[in-house]
Amino acid sequence: MRKLAALAVTAVTVTGTLAVAAPAHAAADTPWLSKNWLVQTGTTRMNTIVRGAGADKADKDNPDDGDTATGVALTGSGVGVALIDSGVSPVKGLDGAGKVINGPDLSFESQAANLRHLDTFGHGTHMAGIIAGQDPTFTVGTRFTGVAPGAHIVSVKVASADGASDVSQVIAGIDWVVAHRNDPGLNIKVLNLSYGTQSTQPASLDPLAFAVEKAWEAGITVVVAAGNDGFTANRLTMPAADPDVIAVGGADPRGTDVRADDVVADFSNRGNAARHPDVLAAGRSVVSLRSPGSYIDRTYPGARLSLLDDPEQRFLRGSGTSQAAAVVSGSVALLLQQRPGLRPDDVKKLLTSTADPIIGGDPYAAGAGQINVARAARARTTYTRQVNVAATGLGSLEASRAGAYVYDSVTGTPLTGERDIFGRAWNAPVWTQASAIQRSWVGGTWNGSTWTGTAWATTYTGPRTWSPVTWTGRSWSGALWSGRSWSSALWSGRSWSSQTWTGRSWSGRSWSAAGWTGEPWH
């Protein structure tokens, strides 16, 4: 990828009573979830998505070597997909050995041992299932598989049960993924960001854009949700607005397995001539794995399938460009199993040049069309390089938040201005220099504060996990982290396996007035 100089402008089942840490909570415009989570009707199952995208027909043979097809299907085996999201719960389909690797928990719940890495929000588990879910045994009619069932998920949790997450946490997560992409057993080649802010500054300045560009340059294909503001949205959310990454819009399969009647989903951001979705993937009423008792699960019980269709009540439907991005991330894992040497630019070109156009679709909203993995797997690599203006990262954290704040639940103070969750001043020139050489993390320290441990923890059961650390000092509000009631039992319930939690107690602003607008988690 060539860069132009920027313009000089500045398998366990978790049971028992769960305790929810409440060090911060999300504002009404918190950016983590689509307002379309359950507004949509119908059901789009993963087998429909996989067949429609040709993922089941993608052959392991590399067309660049001139050999004939082997007939061996791609699964994404060996490819690590980093998922910066709300964590992943160890539900069936994601509880196999090595399926989920827990990177650092950078969320506000990292200080509660019984919540660490778990998906109390319900978003990350749904994405992980789409990308790489795989049931361990085959049962006719009930076996679930994601797009790349052989891939593994590297989960970096940054959002809490109400979606509380600051843009500084997401940037820190991206930097960690880049720094640790080649750790033994990780092989991170894909980064899924079903996330986006309404940043008020151009990608050439935004720190989120800079972070994803550094990941791209490090050989990680970054897949980002385009946003859920619909056809009237003439721009993409950040960091999908960055021209390097793969920006994914949502398609509506309209309840059929054929693509001839597919349209651009009405929630998908249209963009403009300069920047619009690169490709589309199915994003309406997508069926994936449920995190029982999570915020989404409790708030949208109608998202579950019927007992007749889902006797174990494992699944949840969700709509948005989040789901579409997850489909593309799994598809990228398939291509990278086939051709491990592909650079991100190569992957993007393969997907855009082989996509199925949307007949009569808006040229901006539809982009190149819906991805066709089978066709991409048969196409030869063209080794085309993008030429875009490089992001400087010297813009504002506050502009990147664009009003999506987290609030200290003790003081009610919003996190605003040029500082991170620890109240540390944001020095863009210092951070960009360190991030550019993959030195923004020093052990467990980022931006001058200790966020997490320094190494992989020694465990004998459960998934491989990055070591935690107890936060010290003060939050952005000046209140001591140590003064929090991390173990207060705000929710009660029985298990993650099939039951739900009851009750909820969040102080201050709540999601009840959210309206699902302006939130970064798509």
UniProtKB/TrEMBL annotation:
Signal peptide range: 1-26
Gene Ontology MF terms: serine-type endopeptidase activity
Domain Peptidase S8/S53: 76-356
Active-site residues, as the UniProt record annotates them: 85 (charge relay system), 123 (charge relay system), 322 (charge relay system)
A single BP term in Gene Ontology: proteolysis
A Pfam family it matches: Peptidase_S8
Region (Disordered): 502-522
InterPro entries linked: Peptidase_S8/S53_dom, Peptidase_S8/S53_dom_sf, Peptidase_S8_subtilisin-like, Peptidase_S8_subtilisin-rel
Keywords, alphabetical: Hydrolase, Protease, Serine protease, Signal
UniProt record similarity statement: Belongs to the peptidase S8 family.
Descriptive protein name: Peptidase S8/S53 domain-containing protein
Organism from which the protein derives: Actinoplanes auranticolor
